[in-house]
Amino acid sequence: MGGTRHVPRTGGALIASNHLSNADPITVTAFCLVAGRVPRFLAKAVLWRVPVVRAVMRSGRHIPVHRGRASALDSYRDVVAAVREGDCVVVFPEGTFSDRADEWPMQGKTGLARIALTTGAPVVPVANWGTHHVLPDGARWPRLRPRRRVELLAGPPVDLSDLAGPKPSASQLREATTRIMTAITVLLAEVRGESPPPEQVKA
């Protein structure tokens, strides 16, 4: 794990990570704990229907994302309130696992950008790599042999200061989202030791 120093020790903060596996919440939680923060996750509401998982989601005060405009607005308000109360909230801006064959991040959704611009909370980008080898999509059990390496690397908060405001426009949300996803992709390139596709990184 690298870059934990970039996670603010106190105050509201947003952690933005790429998403490759159901194991990601475990690795990102471990990363946040090492950084001195106890994270809350913005997660699919369906997880609250799974018996064992439901207890974990409730005890961790994680925030469910419901489908539908009214319910989605409630989720947004819950995250904004959590950040303003000083919590550290983890969001996977892609909204689901990357479906790219090359496993680079997909285009992010603008929900995280809206939360960040509205609250002014720092967005710390995190590259998470290797979880898809430990627990591939669709697998019921982790693959522990051969031993597989999982790496996480955080960078400094994404500079969104010129876009922040109570009512960001659609273009500001798209620009903020692009900056966040570019920051994640650049970190992931460092972890992977590869160059990302040109369209993945905005200069």
UniProtKB/TrEMBL annotation:
Highest taxon of source: Bacteria
A GO biological process of this protein is: phosphatidic acid biosynthetic process
Q: Which UniProt keywords apply?
A: Acyltransferase, Transferase
Asked whether the UniProt record includes Acyltransferase among its keywords, one would answer yes
Q: Per its UniProt record, what InterPro entries does this chain match?
A: Plipid/glycerol_acylTrfase
Q: Name one GO molecular function term.
A: 1-acylglycerol-3-phosphate O-acyltransferase activity
What GO cellular-component annotations does this UniProt entry give? Answer: plasma membrane
Q: List each copy of the Phospholipid/glycerol acyltransferase domain by range.
A: 13-131
The protein here is known as 1-acyl-sn-glycerol-3-phosphate acyltransferase
